[in-house]
Amino acid sequence: MKDAVHVRIQRHHEAATLPRVSQDGDVAADLFACEATEVPARGRALVPTGIALELPDGFRARIHARSGLSWKHGIETGAGLIDHGFRDPLGVLLYNHTDAPYAVQVGDRIAQLCIERYTHPTFEEVEAIAPTGRSAGWGSSGR
After folding, report:
1. Is 42 within a domain?
2. Can you count the helices (H) and strands (E) in the chain?
3. Which residues contact 18 (CB under 8 A, 6 or more apart)?
4. What's the gap between Cα 53 and its chain centre?
5. For residue 70, what are the domain limits?
6. Ramachandran region of residue 110, left (φ > 0), alpha (ψ -120 to 50) or beta?
7. How far, in Å, CA of 88 to CA of 84, rounded?
């Protein structure tokens, strides 16, 4: 791959599975559960992956929901930003938006991992910012 980034991974659990890109052209790699976990109805659970990442300088990772889990089971992810300096084993915060508990099994694909470049912006306080033609937010672009 032209712009491939090398990410070092350490296993912290014998059942840990390395992230895997399922199909050519996918922008994210699957993350897998290394322990069985129940996500309670209308609740949340932290599902361990058993892996830790060493991201290259200038990169961060983001954890995103899997569309199939969202659509078929009402399971979403939360708190998905991994900073460059974070080296602990990853856990995936899963929210269950249904009235039934959801069972996660060892080896289940639970989320997607995107590796992204980032920059550190500088911030400047000013008296006013330049206006644009855009109207107010909160759904205004759909009018």
Report:
1. yes
2. 1, 11
3. 9, 11, 51
4. 13
5. 8-120
6. alpha
7. 11
Q: How many structural domains comprise the chain?
A: 1
DSSP string, 71-105: HHH-EEEE--EE-TT--SPPEEEEEE-SSS-EEE-
Burial of 35 (0-12, 13-18, 19+ CB in 10 A): middle
Q: Supply the CATH number for residue 47's domain.
A: 2.70.40.10
Cut 0.85: pTM above it? yes
Residue 141 placed within a domain: no
The answer to whether 114 and 133 are in contact (CB under 8 A) is no
Q: Is residue 139 part of a domain?
A: no
Separation between Cα atoms, residue 122 and residue 73, nearest integer Å: 41
Residue range 109-120: mean pLDDT, rounded:
95
The pLDDT value recorded for residue 134 is 73
Token output for 45: 């659970």
Residue whose pair of structure tokens reads 């099994």 in the numeric block:
105
Supply φ then ψ for residue 45, to 5 degrees.
-150, 150
Which pLDDT belongs to residue 37?
98
Has residue 142 been placed in a domain?
no
By three-state DSSP, how is residue 47 classified? strand
